[in-house]
Structure formats: structure tokens, C-alpha cells
Prior knowledge:
With about 750 residues, the protein is an alpha/beta fold.
Amino acid sequence: xxxxxxxxxxxxxxxxxxxxxxxxxxxxxxxxxxxxxxxxxxxxxxxxxxxxxxxxxxxxxxxxxxxxxxxxxxxxxxxxxxxxxxxxxxxxxxxxxxxxxxxxxxxxxxxxxxxxxxxxxxxxxxxxxxxxxxxxxxxxxxxxxxxxxxxxxxxxxxxxxxxxxxxxxxxxxxxxxxxxxxxxxxxxxxxxxxxxxxxxxxxxxxxxxxxxxxxxxxxxxxxxxxxxxxxxxxxxxxxxxxxxxxxxxxxxxxxxxxxxxxxxxxxxxxxxxxxxxxxxxxxxxxxxxxxxxxxxxxxxxxxxxxxxxxxxxxxxxxxxxxxxxxxxxxxxxxxxxxxxxxxxxxxxxxxxxxxxxxxxxxxxxxxxxxxxxxxxxxxxxxxxxxxxxxxxxxxxxxxxxxxxxxxxxxxxxxxxxxxxxxxxxxxxxxxxxxxxxxxxxxxxxxxxxxxxxxxxxxxxxxxxxxxxxxxxxxxxxxxxxxxxxxxxxxxxxxxxxxxxxxxxxxxxxxxxxxxxxxxxxxxxxxxxxxxxxxxxxxxxxxxxxxxxxxxxxxxxxxxxxxxxxxxxxxxxxxxxxxxxxxxxxxxxxxxxxxxxxxxxxxxxxxxxxxxxxxxxxxxxxxxxxxxxxxxxxxxxxxxxxxxxxxxxxxxxxxxxxxxxxxxxxxxxxxxxxxxxxxxxxxxxxxxxxxxxxxxxxxxxxxxxxxxxxxxxxxxxxxxxxxxxxxxxxxxxxxxxxxxxxxxxx
Length: 745
């Protein structure tokens, strides 16, 4: 027997290996194996089994299997094949994304020696130990005094080798030793289980009944669950999962932000106990390996996590929920495959015969368009759960406010300061959104205007007051020494401009010194425990003001949070990207929804410099339908999704001239080959230089009126892709293909 094996390399070739007799019964399509590849043993995936091979030379053998139990269902293998074809990515690379190399079913948790005292039959035995082996006697006394079995390692202060001492005591019959598996703690990243008594309103009942009906049919069923903020969407997920488990099937809940995981996981744990598994980037290697193995074994029936959880090796998958489906964090832009978890979930569901619930208070324009064209079953929750009222929204024109106060460049308007003071007096909580981290986003010379730039990217370095560092938020480059003089003119007049979360934090501490304040952004949430502790403290009322970036703007439910302040609603509004307005509208709408979630009335203060902008104006009115109609009209006029299929070729390299030249040659070769296709470019990307790589792009628009399912565009790029590599010989340059990109910057 022979096997075709794909490795995680850039080429699309597979390699033939002989299957050893002792593995012939175990190796299947989709099995992960180790095989000699060049000078090393590499991990690959079996793509085909053959009884014969035309190769006449000496055939290399597969050296072993990676896993000791089945990890691949037929449906998951189909998904890998589809992703390879759709995203034009070699099978080996896709498999590495779906089944990471550093995870193995052979993982075994480490063990710890534990000791406990035995009943003493004769005190003389103990006296003898005291005389002849005083160290053993001291250790025994510590063990005997303990209220529960002790870890042997905790006795190191009494003996240099406590295990040997305990073994000596065991021989004398004074103690018993046993090994205990150190199972990774995977519950630490969750809130305590929250039990809720739920009485569904009519809209919720209708939604639950519709999902259950299609779950019973066991057929692919896509839904758009459009529920206003605070409408009880999570309770619908729980009820749908409950029915799914009753069918002896499994479920996946995808969340866009790790910050949403603890709260939702706590809700699910209250109902389903230890059948819940968490899957996200903050898990340790041990936690990930153990969790993954237990999922394969069937110990977990529900997986909650970020985008990679869409690949969880669950069997009999009945339901997938994509919460906040509009979020860009569901998209992976690097490395290949450059996939969107929402689209992958929909495709996996077609193979599994599953129900898929795309859920949001602000659906993506694509999903909204698909609902209008009857491609999704629409479920609407127009009322807040428990009779809670919509918050009162105040729109503050910061230019007018600054003219009135005489304080140019002030961060907090007079109205927002008054509202914060009022809430603090009422012992209610405040959420403040500033979607930019650091202290000052720009450091520049006050004389010549020179901006301190990242040496690896064409972006300004951000000053972080905590730590006194200049940091690039694109590549991570940092400088610990502050710039005291300008590198161009040697002026000492360095200005720190703009406002990040650290600057707002400093201002809040000065303005409200008695308030308990916490900041939640990428800097404070680098570990799962740090993030969880902040959210738990806010949930318990130990924090008065929670300040953060977009991490805090969606999905979280804090009943005592009655005021939301959006410091600068305009951030990102004027980026040269066709989705900029949609993103800002969704962010403002979602952030506003954190206020007044229960019986207490909520208020929102939106600070802006462009109050008449349609995005800002309609977000302040919480009028999604009106804004979406405006946005769809603009998209249609400009031939952007959802009215077209979009793709881009990104050419990168360290030499700007070479990258520019290559992009022009590729563009010229493609012109006129496909009627009905708009080809834009080549042009530098908005962020022209990232991580020492210059970036140029060519953008493709294929109208759905001529290309209803996008197959024409796919075939066109697929047919030309191999030619790119052979014809143009990119050398040190890279040619990356993005289908359905979320951004053109």
C-alpha cells in the first residue's frame, strides 16, 4: 500500500510513500503522519491511498503516525479540500491550519506525587523513627498535621529529596503515596456559572421554534438572527444547543472577541456543566493539547471559542452559532488560507447537515443583503429582554463644545463629565470606549513637523506612557528610549499628539480620583487571566469605570452599567476603505447597547466632530435600517460587495521598485482576459510598508449580475495563479491571493 502525503509547503505537490505493514490498518485519508522529507522527518497529512505506484526507484516509508485516535471525520476532510480549492492554498497548509502541528492526541497530562498519613497502630514505631530518622519524623509530622493529602513537592523545605523520604515512610507503613494527574485548569477563563430563570417572549419563542424545527430535519439550514442589543440572543443559543444535545449531536459557538468568552462560557456551564470546552489563543499549550484530545474522544459536546474553533473535531455536528457575525476578527488574513470563519462555518454545515445561526444586532451588509434575497431564514428580536428600554442617546458636537468651554482639544465634553459624576453618585457603572490604545498615537517635532515613524513600517510610532515606550502597533517594534530631540532638525520641541486609552485613563484618574477605574485593551489583556479578572471585577461591582477599546463594545452584559461614553466616534471613519462607514456604525451601535440592560435606564454620550455625517447621525438614532439602505445604495453604485465578488492580489517584497515592477507586469498580463471584470490598480496599499515589506495590490470586481456564484472570478484567478509563479518568477517577492477580503487597506 502507498499513500500520497501533503506537507505544509507553498507548492501544491503531494509525495508518495510506502505504508509499513504495521501501519497498514491504521492509516486512513486524513491521518497525520511523519515521513522523511529532505533531511528531516516532517509532519504531513494523507490525501490518498493507493494499491500501486508507478515510481521505480527506492520508495521512502512513512515513519509513524502523529495521533493515536481518529481525528478526521469525512465531513472535516471535505471541508479541508474545499478550503484548499476556494482559497487556492495547498492541502498541507490548510491541514496545518485546521489541525495545528503542536497538538497531538498523544498528549498526557503530567503527574504529581501526593502523600497522606496512615492510621498508626503502634506509637513505638513512631518513636523509633524519631530516634533513628529525625528527618523522616519531621516530614511525617507535617503530613499528619495537614487536613488533606499533600503534594510531595510542597515538602521541599523539610527535605532536599522529599519523595525518597516519603518512600521511606511508606515502607514503615506510616504513609501512602499515589500519583495524581495534573489536568490543565480550563475553567479559569470563565465566569462563575450563572443560573437564570428565563421566560421567553413571543419573538424569542418564534426564533427558538424555527431553529428547533430545522434541527429536527437534520438538513443544512442557515439563519440570520437579528436581535437588538440586550434582546436575549444568548438564551436562544442555549435552548438550541439543549435541543441539539438531546439529539445526541454536538455544537460550536463562535465568538469574535476573547473578551466575550468568560461571560458566555459561564452561562453555558450553568446549563451544560463540564460538557463545555473553550478554544482560544489564551489557552496554554498544555490546555490546548488536553482540550483537543478530549474533543476527539467525545468528552466535550459543545465548543465555545474564537474563529479557529470552527475546525473543532466534533462528531455529529448539529448546530453552529456565529455570534456578532459581522466582526472582522473572524477573518484570517495571514498566513494562508486567508479564510473567513463565517463562510467556512456555512460550508461545513452543508457537509454536516447542520443548522447555522448568524447572529448580531448589526449584521454585516452581506448577511443583510442575503436575507433580503431570501438566502437566509430571517429571525427578528425587536425588543430588549425583560422589558428593558433603549438607552437615551446624546450626540455631542465637540467643536461646538470646545468653542463654548474655550478648551481646545479637550477629551471629555462637559456633558460626559456631568453624566459620569451623576452615575458615580448613584453607585452605577460606566463604560468608556476609546478605540485606540497607547497614550499618544503620534509623536512629532513642533518645529519642522517630522513624525517619529516605525523603521519597519510606514506608520507612526505610538507613545505608551506605562513603560515609557514608543511602539508600532503593526509589527511590534518598540523603542524604550523616548525621543528628546528631532532627528531632522535637532529641535527639543517634541509634541505628543492624539488620544489613546492611556491618556484617557490618566485624565479620568485626575478628574475622578475616588472612582475605581480599570483599562481593558490589548496591553492589559495579554493573558487570559488578566482579561478575566478585569471583567469579573466589573461584573461584581468592584470597578466603577471600565475604559477600553472595541473589546468592550459588544456582547458583554453588565446590569449595573447605565452609562456608555464614546470618546471619539470618528476614529476610523475616514479611512480609504469601502467598509469604513459600516464598521463605525456597528461599533457605535454595539457600544451604545451596553447601557441600560435591565430595569435601570441607560444613557449614551457620543462625542464627534462630524455630527451631520450619515454614519454618526443614524448610529445616534439607533436606526440601522435607514443607514443600511444608504450604505447598500452606495455599494451598488460603486460595484462593491454585496453586489459584486471581490478579490485582490497582493504583491510584497523588500525592494519597492521590484514590487512595483512585478505588480505592473501581472496587471498587464491580466488585462482584457475576462469580459465583465473590473481590474483596479496596481497601486500601493494604504499601509504601503509593513514589517519591512512593500505592498502593492490589484483589485478585482466581478458583478453578481454576470457571475452569480463567483465561479467565473475564481476560475479566472485559479487559471492564472500557476502562471504567475512560473512566468514572473517572483524570487524574493510574494504573490498573495485574497478572496472576499474585508478590507482594501
